[in-house]
Amino acid sequence: MKFDIITIFPEIFDSYLKESLISRARKKKLLKINIYNLRKYTKDAHKTVDDRPFGGGLGMVFKVEPIFKAVTALKRKAKSEKRKTKIILFTPRGKQFNQKMAYQFSKLDHLIMICGRYEGVDERVAKHIADIELSIGPYDLMGGELPAMVVIETMARLIPGIIGKPELLKQRIPIKRGRQGRGFIEYPQYTRPPKFFVKKLRRARPEVWQVPKVLLSGNHKKIQEWRQKHQKIIEK
């Protein structure tokens, strides 16, 4: 899987890409992540990527020309590599990203992600360049960099070999649930110690927070039944 990210703040991704499973996956070449500075696709001396909105208004708007140049260059390279590509524009009014969408994207092998900033992005980008407009929630962020990280992390969990055991991968593949659509399974998790003593006041007896006994029983059938009873299907 290859991720190409277009941004004006490439350094935002530095620490994120150098840590944890994402870093290991890159070293193992299980995924490729490239960060492209949008300013490199400008032609003026000041490397201008934005301008005032027509009709007036607050803030600045990303220009269509540098984004077009950046995406065209990346698409040309993807075509030479025979990659299945989808172009994402992050915007608060876009479709909300979910697990089902991540699973659909995992059938591709290349995502180009456009990270907007300031007041927004010239509408011609959404209309003529992007394949889909995405949001990660019903709120407004300062830019598309955090959403890009969210998409990468969600997608990375679906790539075999990144999170380890194949069983963990199966838990994130969307399942059918009648007419209510699709989702994935989550259930409560516990680890050592089996008893955790909490003393809230000096003279009070400590509370004991215990792990459910069935999880300590070693009876795999009963454990599975307990997990099914307490599981929650996270809807799309």
Q: Which labels suit this protein?
A:
five-stranded parallel sheet, 32% helix, 2 domains, alpha/beta, single chain, elongated, Alpha/beta knot, 236 residues, 13 strands, three-stranded mixed sheet
Short description:
The chain has 236 residues and is an alpha/beta fold. The protein has helices spanning 14-17, 20-27, 64-80, 99-105, 123-129, 145-156, 166-170, 213-216, 220-230, and strands spanning 2-7, 32-37, 50-51, 61-62, 85-96, 110-114, 120-121, 132-135, 175-176, 182-186, 195-198, 207-210, 232-235.
Folded structure, characterized:
The protein is of the alpha/beta class and 236 residues long. It has two domains: 2-156, SPOUT methyltransferase, trefoil knot domain (Alpha/beta knot, 3-Layer(aba) Sandwich); 175-235, no CATH class. The protein is 32% helix and 25% strand. It is built from nine helices and 13 strands. The protein has helices at 14-17, 20-27, 64-80, 99-105, 123-129, 145-156, 166-170, 213-216, 220-230, and strands spanning 2-7, 32-37, 50-51, 61-62, 85-96, 110-114, 120-121, 132-135, 175-176, 182-186, 195-198, 207-210, 232-235. Helix 3 packs parallel to helix 5.
